[in-house]
Give the backbone structure.
Amino acid sequence: MFRSLFDPDSSFGRAMDLLLRLIILNVLWLVCSLPLVTLGASTTALCSVLMKFREGEESHVARRFFAAWRQNWKRATGTWLLLLTLLALFLFDLCFGKWMESFLWKVIAVAGLQVVAMEYIFLYPLLARYENTWRAHMCNALRLGIGYFPRFMLIWLLWAGAIALTLYSPGTLHSMIAVWALLGWSGLHYLNLCILRPVFDQLDSSEKK
């Protein structure tokens, strides 16, 4: 029984293999995102490797991650710096709206933050999967976010729930820091891609026609 349990082809063996790969990817993503400006390239590389997992393609995790990082770092870094600028701008608007007690200003800031979140969720899988200009990718990410709004909201709630659990109490904060360090980022992006898989399957079939 134990021999079959630890068989690499068993459900348990495949789950443990996926867990190990996610941990390796999480560490690689964290290390390569430390300068912050490289977070976009790291997220694109992460999505690229995770998509290969979903398609059942076996390969060396670190080698594929760094290959995807090098291939996409220019486009991904440019788009990330733009998103980072917009994020800072809308967060400033939100604080300014609270200070001025302006409901309209706060609504505009929150709407802008949702657009940034939508871009982040859809943009980097597009960069990882398809060849296009960064402008086209950003426009397509916005179109997909609007066209598949329920999936966007499901992913948004997933991330919001993870962050809320982390900040719930000092005890959960200490526990979740370890989870984020080992598995949090890669695990959440893996779940994102599971939710978005029908979207990309539809895009792939429309490309073949």
Q: What stands out?
A: Residues 61-100 form the longest helix (40 residues). The helical segments are 2-5, 11-33, 39-54, 61-100, 103-129, 134-147, 149-167, 170-208. The chain is about 85% helix and 0% strand.
